[in-house]
Design goal:
The chain is mainly β. The protein has strands spanning about 1-5, 10, 20-25, 30-40, 45-50, 55-60, 65-70, 75-80, 90-100, 105-110, 115. β5 (about 45-50) and β6 (about 55-60) form a beta hairpin.
Length: about 120
Amino acid sequence: QVQLVESGGGVVQPGGSLRLSCAASGSRFSIVAMGWYRQAPDEEREMVATITSSGRSNYQESVKGRFTISKENYVDTVYLQMNSLKPEDTGVYYCKADQLTSQGIANYWGQGTQVTVSS
């Protein structure tokens, strides 16, 4: 089992910045990727950014050039630096970890952290 704890959410004005953190604990062996997803009210959860254990990153088109995902300690901790925030970035941000097991890939989710972009 992998436990994920997110932090860093809050309220920020448009154009501002926030940095989210996600720390993995528990059985962290064979985590192959981590990422950030968000869910706005009455919307589906969507991928924001992901990063593999080898450092390959992927971003949703709407955040490219504004958000940066990074990691340390071989994917035990992942960050999301969010700059030039827009009201449409508002939502609950969830951290996700993908772990390779004998039965395939196991997905783990954090509890989520609220990001509100508003003037």
